[in-house]
Amino acid sequence: MAAKPNVVLFFIDDLGWADIGVNGSTFHETPHIDALAKSGVNFTHSYSAHPVCSPTRAALMTGKAPQRVGITQWIPTNAKVALPLSEVTIGEAFQDAGYRTGYIGKWHLGKADDVQPQHQGFDYTVAVNRAGQPASFFYPFGKRKGGSSVPDLENYKKGDYLTDALTDLAIDFIDQKSSEPFFLCLSHYAVHTPIQAPADLVKKYQAKKEKMYGAGKAELLEERYGTMSTARQEDPAYAAMMENLDTNIGRVMEALKASGQLENTIVVFSSDNGGLAHRKQTGGPTSNLPLRSGKAWTYEGGIRIPTIISWEGKIAPQESKTPVITMDIYPTLLELCGLNARPEQHLDGLSLKKVLEGESDAALDRPFLAWTYPHVHGGGHKPSAAIQMKGWKLIKFSDGKTYELYKLTDDLGEKSDLSDQNPERVREMDALLEKWISDTTPKSTK
After folding, report:
1. What is the pLDDT of residue 111?
2. Element housing 100 (H / E)
3. Are 295 and 275 in contact (CB under 8 A)?
4. What is the residue-averaged pLDDT of the chain?
5. Average of pLDDT values for 379-407?
6. Which of 28, 238, 280, 319 gives the lowest tally of CB atoms within 10 Å of its CB?
């Protein structure tokens, strides 16, 4: 058992595809994440299962499209919605295989005591709050409207920063002496709101903003339903959060190296949805350009995310354009670790092992990727669904013009709607999309 590889899964909140340097950011500084990407496989066409957090987190845990488990919207604090205990989570799969399992940080898959990570396959569960965001990123991590306090951090002091604290806990977990391999999910609250960061880093990016852009403000781009998205990355506090996050990714990687475990540890880095670039009137604290829009929308900016898989000495560094999605993480890690697949559980995920070994996109037998977000969101989104296949993407809206069709291979920014010129393609893709939604939605919730 000791020969089995460890797993560290970094799951970042609201991290956009373009937020990291290796994917094109010039305002944010992310040298440790960039180094991780260059040490393994950087999936440049990676997607979240959903444009908001709770559904994607459910997909990560189960390997299923979110609607299969009844989670199609972020879970409000007072809601009774939760990840069903009947699901065999990725944590339980590794626990069953003799792994020491840990979960640190944001869960957002139910409020009740009996649906927390310790009841879903994680031996060690710490710093899990009962909301979608922390009340504050600074100690005592509370006393802010719209969030909730983060527990288990009473030993910290005024001025201490949440992302640092979670990393301390992760390093403690990694350094525990054990004959068992470990599976650790480090689910950072960063870079979700509230947008707060250490003052020295904020000052650094205030100066950088002035040097790069002067005193002018970023342009706002008008989007569907009269909403706005931000046209460039320039928010000093957000950039400071990014640098702090990056530093803490580096701390974990250094801890693995110092403990002699790096070469026997698979590292996965991913996000739950696109960056917060799109709100009703003000835009957001980041920009996802060249992708369109952001979190809560089925445009590329809302669902395309960073995903990196690295295993020192075992996976050759490369950049992959293979379209992959959140549900793939579950079966991929099982196969990489030599554990039995659970096809009846991770129904919508495919193992990426062949892609990681350098085989072509054709190694994945997947005809399309699809999404459904049948709810209104505070950022202005109205119900939509989307399907992507063979370089084309169809978005179907419930309000206003029904269809938008884009050829992503020529139009990554989704600027030229080709639906009117391609009625047959629209009908074909719409039929596949509706069948997928029907097939993956339990009858009790239709």
Report:
1. 94
2. strand 100-105
3. yes
4. 95
5. 97
6. 319
Distance, C-alpha 18 to centroid of its chain: 13
How far is residue 381's CA from residue 375's CA, in Å, rounded to a whole number?
8
Q: How far apart are CA 361 and CA 355, in angstroms?
A: 7
What tens digit of pLDDT does each residue of 197-244 get? 999 999 999 999 999 999 888 889 999 999 999 999 999 999 999 999
Q: 359 — phi, psi (to 5°)?
A: -75, 165
CB-count exposure of residue 276 (10 Å: 0-12, 13-18, 19+): buried
How far, in Å, CA of 208 to CA of 405, rounded?
Answer: 38
Specify the fold of 6-363: Alkaline Phosphatase, subunit A (3.40.720)
**pLDDT at res. 445:** 59
Query: Between helices 236-258 and 162-175, what is the axis angle to 10°?
Result: 10
Residue 161 carries which DSSP code?
Answer: B
Sequence-separated (6 or more) residues with CB below 8 Å from residue 294: 16, 229, 230, 274, 275, 276, 277, 278, 284, 286, 288, 301, 302, 379
**Closest to 305 in 3D by CA, of 277, 326, 332:** 326
- Residue 379 near residue 279 (C-beta atoms within 8 A): yes
pLDDT interval class at 142 (50, 70, 90): confident
What is the CATH T-level fold of the domain 383-445, as seen in this structure? Arylsulfatase, C-terminal domain (3.30.1120)
Given a contact cutoff of 8 angstroms between Cβ atoms, the answer to whether 241 and 195 are in contact is: yes
Find out whether 241 and 197 touch, Cβ atoms under 8 Å: yes
* Confidence at 146, pLDDT banded by 50, 70, 90: low
Cα–Cα distance, 371 to 383 (Å, whole number): 11
The per-residue b/e assignment along 34-73, b for 16 or more CB within 10 angstroms, e otherwise, is bbbbebbbbbbbbbbbbbbbbbbbbbbbbbbbbbbbbbbb
Contact 254, 261 (CB under 8 A): no
Task: Return the exposure string of 118-130: e unless at least 16 CB atoms fall within 10 Å of the residue's CB, then b.
Answer: bbbbbbbbbbbbb
Can you list the alpha helix ranges (DSSP code H) found in 43-139? 53-62, 90-96
Contacts of 42 (CB under 8 A, 6+ apart): 22, 23, 306, 307, 308, 318, 319, 320
What confidence score (pLDDT) does residue 178 get?
85
The CA distance from 323 to 305, in Å, is 11
Inter-residue contact 103 to 185 (CB < 8 Å): yes
pLDDT in tens, 116-138: 999 999 999 999 999 999 999 99
